[in-house]
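Hi R.,

Here are the chain sequences for the assembly we discussed:
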Amino acid sequence: MTAEKSEVLQGTLDLMILKTLHALGPQHGFGIARRIEQVSEDVLTLNEGTVYTSLLRLQQRGWIVAKWGASENNRKARYYSITKIGLKQLAVETENWERISGVIARVLSLQGEK
Amino acid sequence: MTIWIRVLTARLRGLFGRGWTGHELEDEIELHIQMLTDRFIIKSMAPGDAEAAARRQFGNATLLRERHYEQRTLYIFATLWRDLCFGLRQLQRNRILTFVAITSLGLGIGANTAIFAAAKRVLFDTLPVASPHQLRMLTWVSGQEQPVPPVWGDVGPNDAGGLTGDAFSYPVLEEMRKRTDAVQALIAFKDAPMTVTIDGHPEMINAELISGNALESLGVKSALGRMLTPVDDLAPGSGPVVVISDGYWTQRFGRSPLVLGKAISLNGVPVTIAGVSSGRFSGLEMGSPMQIFVPLTMQPLILPRAQSGSVSLLDNSQSWWVQILVRMRPEIPDGRAQAELDASLRHAALPVLKRTSDLDRFHLQLQPGDRGLDYLRGEYARPSYVLLALAGLVLLLACLNLANLLLARSATRQRELSTRMALGASRGSIIRQMLTESLLLSSFGGAAGLLLGYLGRNVIPRLLMNSSGPELVHVQFDWRVLLFTLAISFATGIIFGLAPAWQSTRIAAHAGLRVSGGATANRHKLWFDKSLVISQIALSAMLLMGAGLFVHTLFNLNRIPLGFESNHVLLFRLRLPGARYTDAQMTTFFKQLEEKLASLPGVRSITANNIGIIGDGHSGSTLHVLGRPHEKDPARVQTNAIGADFFETLGIPILQGRAFNRHDTATSPKVAIVNRTLAQKFFLNENPIGKTFETDPEDVDGPIQIVGIAADTRYADLRSETPPTFYVPYVQKVDGPSRMMVELRTVADPNSVLPEVRGALESLDRDLPMLDVRTMKDQVRSTMADERALTQLAGGFSVLALALASIGIYGMMAYAVNTRTGEIGLRIALGARTSQVLARVLREAFWLTGAGIVLGLIAALWLTRFIRVMLYGLGNTDALTVGGTAVLLVSVSLIAAFAPARRASRIDPIRALRHD
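And here is the predicted structure of the full complex:
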């Protein structure tokens, strides 16, 4: 059961990270985690470390790239930014997500009629 | 798709730059946690608490590192490599186990490889020609009475109750050649031994007469020079060229290019070598390599057969001698081609066939031709299957041993495995690691087995070589054998490593970490181990039964009364080529030979006969007693054309009448001597002496008078009952004595007179080689070659099986004693005597063995039916063998269990209980 949950979470986490990078521009892992925490209003409680697993996946697929830079406190940090194909993937995923949630919404409302 | 490629490349990069990315992650984690800590400090938390809270929020860093690592490389390779290294280290640490496992696996796999290589030749290999599956062998079938004139070739009964044969006449062949629409090509051939004289040295070789189109249709390329063409085959002597095989070129000429255009003589006829065939092609008879290929139309010159005034068989519709292989057209189904060729056959043959009552049953039949003329399969199929089965049993035993050893060892690693699983290793990863170990063992075993198999590849054929049967030579070690070995090794490793691996992880987690010995927790394992040992005993019992049966058979065969004296007799064969000798010259030759050899010191008497008395095949004929009505189905009897001193040389007593003497010549009245079986069959209540009979006119012409009765002897082989046989003097036969077996009775060791015999032969004909020189004792022994081979192999396997089984029992008992130390200590403390403890352990071993023996014997008795034809003189359930097997196995197992039993009885109760 835990495996399933983490897989679903993994997929949605990917999407959230892409969106974050798209909206906020280049970020390091900490910044991404803060943004997600903020947006989800603490509903999604996850171990922040899992962000890095997602970041690796996205990197491997070429949707984001990483670069070493200086953080706000002048510490060495790794900044991630979305790529062109990453943008395309984001658009595709967003469309998918909206379609699916629309279908589910319709199905659920259907059940209510019975 | 492209995503997958990108991920793969990223992972590959990760695999090789492992350390570097790991450090990067470390930095990121450290930074992240620091920034989290700062946030908590800002929210006015104490630094120590802040850091703890930060780490908590971050989550399991170790797990993250693990998952990250898994993700960024090709994890499977990394773990595989790690498992491999660990496995190798484990093997090194347990040298005894490794040694025993690899040795037993090596022997098992090696035996299987060697036998498979030989059996492949017998069962699966096809001729090394182009598209062998397109080839069909032509045969004819008929009713019970043979309508075809006497055949120079094979005729035998078929499954439909009639006869079948594979020889055709040349005119029939030419008629069928016209049907080019039915088949792609017709390849005609005839195999015959010939004398080839190269640079003045004669030697016997196997030659194949083939039609001119043959080599081309078969796709045989030339390694040197050219192949035979239809132009060479137009008329006798139009192309006095031959092609030699690659094997012969290597063996006889050392692959010298000078053979091209070399002039040699074949049966006295000068021919030129036009080329060398390439590759493994060595004729169209499976298993019998041909050295020289000759155009078919050379027959009248090289193999003249005098018949109705002419020596040529090419225009003789009464002589059926040539074999025909056809290459089918892929678009024409077998049925249609067969029907069309059948029409040609009947059209050409019906005018010359004997008018039997069921001529409508005479038809053509297509048989598979991918193995050409196949004598191998009939002769060796059954022994091959038996050997494969035996080898399979041995391998199974070795595998069970492997499983046993692995199980025993995993018992000692219990603590390690439990700790691992507690630390979070998945069951799959542990099983994978143990499988890697067993695969390592089986791979090493497989490599050892391959080597053994290669070294021993000629052992099997040599063991099975019979004097009269086709030769099983040239066992090839090709990719199929390699694949076979690889497959077995792999399968062994996986199948027999899986069970112990799975078993050991089953109870690992909770039970293994308990300090106490925990006899109860290991009950499952004990049961598994017991069934392994029982299986081993059962397999050993089966092998021992097999060996015992063969030994018993061999013993029985050796005790069969031969009917003649086999001591002090030297044999050899001579073939007089028809090109150099007429019939009269042949007779003169043998007369002179007999006189010369009889006068040698050390030779008591000499005779020559048509076929050897044993191990030389059959020579059948019909018999019709004059004065009795003709029978519809004339009885077949065996016959032998012999010299005057036959009975004396071979020590066969004459029961009544007289033997042949000098007065029986070619011109004197035809006489014969019959054996007792024939006398009883045909002349039950009368005296055969004086009666006359006739036989095939091609053998002896005219009425023959019986002048004596000889004692029965074995004929051709040891097993068959003596057939009714009559003997005629070879001088009175129609054909000259071209192929004769010469027997000499010597005073002392037969081999001692060999030089003088050679000298005498050379003085008569320098170009005549002596063939198959051996003593009669050897000849008799060679008829039992199959049985002896199987006995030796089965015996060897049984010894191996016993060794493996005893290791199994020893290990099993030692383990049982080990785990039950506490219990045994308790018993001793409570007053059990040493002898009682000893007896208890031995009794357990006894019951295990008993169970195994019962299972094994039941299986063996059921399997015996498949080898029944190979056994001789044994009852349905050979009590002697069964009893012997049981006794042997029980003794062996008790001995093997003795050491652990003694150790058990010597357990110091105080130490045992304290250890618990």
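Chain B has 28 helices and 26 strands. The two ends of chain B are 61 Å apart (CA to CA).

Let me know if anything looks off.

Best,
T.
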